[in-house]
Amino acid sequence: MRLRSTLAAALGGLMLSMALPSAPASAATGDFLYTYVGLNGVSLRGELTDPQSRECINIPETVGSALPAFAPRNFTTSTATVFLEDNCNGDVFHTMNPGQILGNRLRLRSVVFS
Fold it and tell me: Is 96 within 8 Å of 114 (Cβ atoms)?
């Protein structure tokens, strides 16, 4: 009798897991803020809201610009790794814990979230 109950519970769990939709693409919840220099030379604030996890994101305002972004603020629920180069390349990177704020000296062009 026990074997039948165990088998029924296992089969029910398997069928339930197959009926549930697959998990959506994960995203870091919250905002990742940074500063960049606009066309007129004024510092502006940029923002990535609920960014995709495990996907390299180039900072849009730095693409084609000679100047990288700076002063990142990780207000997401995930760890952010920021890179000085586009496409999360290069030897210069820094890992930021959730809630961490870094100063004006840290430069970045791309970021990936855990």
Answer: no
- Which residue carries 């089969």 as its tokens? 11
* In the chain, beta strands by DSSP E: 30-37, 43-49, 57-58, 69-76, 80-83, 93-96, 107-108, 110-113
71 in Cβ contact with 65 (< 8 Å):
no
> For residue 80, what are the β-bridge partners?
96, 113
* C-alpha–C-alpha distance, residues 114 and 93, integer Å: 14
Give per-residue pLDDT as tens, 53-90: 999 999 999 998 899 999 999 999 999 999 999 999 99
What HEC string does 6-27 produce? HHHHHHHHHHHHHHCCCCCCCE
Identify the CA nearest to 80 among candidates 103, 105, 48, 36. Answer: 48
Q: Does the structure show a pLDDT above 90 at 26?
A: no
